[in-house]
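Weekly structure sync, notes
Attendees: PL (lead), two postdocs, one rotation student
Agenda item 3: pending single-chain targets
PL asked that the sequence for the first pending target be pasted directly into the notes so everyone works from the same version. It is reproduced below exactly as submitted, 167 residues in total.
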Amino acid sequence: MVTERQPVSRATARRVWPRAVQRALHLYWWVSRGMTLGVRAAVLDGEGAVFLVRHTYVSGWHLPGGGVEWRETLRDALEKELREEANIALAGEPALFGMYLNAHASRRDHVALYVVRAFTQHGPRHADREIAEARFFPLSDLPEDTTPATRRRLAEIAGEAAISPHW
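Predicted structure, written out during the meeting:
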């Protein structure tokens, strides 16, 4: 018995297509990358403030950072991300605070967290397609939608919480 195929509606195609693309990309990354590695920076000024960024593509305030590319050192990636996301240049050695498993992103994702106290900022960071907003906040008065992971890392750095191996 031969049955006639019903055409797929545009609404169904719009729902199915993005999921299919996302699954294909995840499969590609799973096959092509054994582990992903990123860097984040807790940039702390001398007045008790931390630099945070709010991205255009994910909610909440985060520590600046991003992925470590092939043939890039952690330090190189840190410098690049601070320049791109914060308009900040290192003026001294950043301190590696810890390495974390970020299972929320992937079972293979790891993040190196640095504490940066010696830096210069070459003017304010203006909004663009990636960064909606970026600025310093007093540690005692973080924005309400600061991500839980960012709050945990800042509490660890301040010695107010035990250091976790998980982001």
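Discussion points:
- Residues 46 and 117 are 8 Å apart (CA to CA).
- The longest helix spans residues 10-32.
Action: rotation student to compare against the earlier draft before next sync.
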